[in-house]
Write a structure and sequence with these properties.
Layout (H helix, E strand, L loop, with lengths): L4 H15 L2 H9 L5 E6 L7 E6 L1 H5 L3 H6 L28 E8 L5 E12 L6 E10 L1 H49 L8
Antiparallel strand pairs: 1-2, 1-5, 3-4, 4-5
């Protein structure tokens, strides 16, 4: 019962090894999130992911085969976001992780927002830009919540503006009513001199 952390890790690792092979365990873990990982061979004629792991199908509604049949991953990207994702690998700095946000149109027609973090890997022998590895996170819910918060702030500002205008209008009406009452009072009192 008093096992050390390395012993515990080894025991858990052994137990998982009995249940899963390495690839099945990886697929199981990545299926638990809305994220997926991809690898692209940048030397290929078409920049299509050669390996996709995780919840690609859950996020897009398509299998990788269906995407390939429909013209590749670019066919999923929302038309307004096509330019945002068009950075060619030769322009990427391999020392940096690049982050791009764009929307896709899923198989069921929903527009989903994705954050794509990717990095170029150089071939150690040649120094050539050969592999692009990326991780994609579905941020649709976060963007919807941000939009709701923005709308609530707008409504709050409109409410304050309306309240301010109503207060100023009330002050103006009070002055007008006061002046009207004073005129009525002076007009009805015959003992006051005529000022008009």
């Amino acid at each position: 019962a008093n096992e050390t952390k390395p012993e515990s890790k080894k025991r858990v690792g052994t137990r998982l090894g009995e249940i899963f092979d390495h690839e099945t365990f990886f697929e199981f873990c990545t299926s638990l999130s809305s994220d997926f990982i991809y690898v692209v061979d940048t030397t290929a004629r078409h920049l299509e992911p050669t390996i996709v792991a995780g919840s690609f199908e859950q996020t897009t509604g398509y299998s990788t085969q269906e995407v390939a049949e429909h013209g590749g991953c670019e066919s999923l990207i929302h038309p307004d976001d096509q330019r945002a994702t068009a950075e060619p690998p030769e322009q990427l700095n391999p020392e940096e992780t690049h982050v791009t946000e764009y929307r896709i149109i899923s198989k069921d027609g929903q527009v989903r927002s994705l954050r794509d973090s990717h990095r170029l890997i150089l071939d150690p022998a040649t120094g050539e830009r050969t592999i692009l590895v990326g991780g994609v996170e579905d941020v649709t819910r976060q963007r919807a919540l941000e939009q709701e918060l923005l709308e609530a702030k707008r409504m709050e500002a409109v409410g304050r503006l309306v309240g301010s205008v109503a207060h100023d209008f009330n002050n103006l009406l009070t002055a007008i009513l006061g002046a009207t009452e004073l005129l009525e009072f002076t007009a009805s009192d015959a003992s006051l001199p005529d000022v008009v």
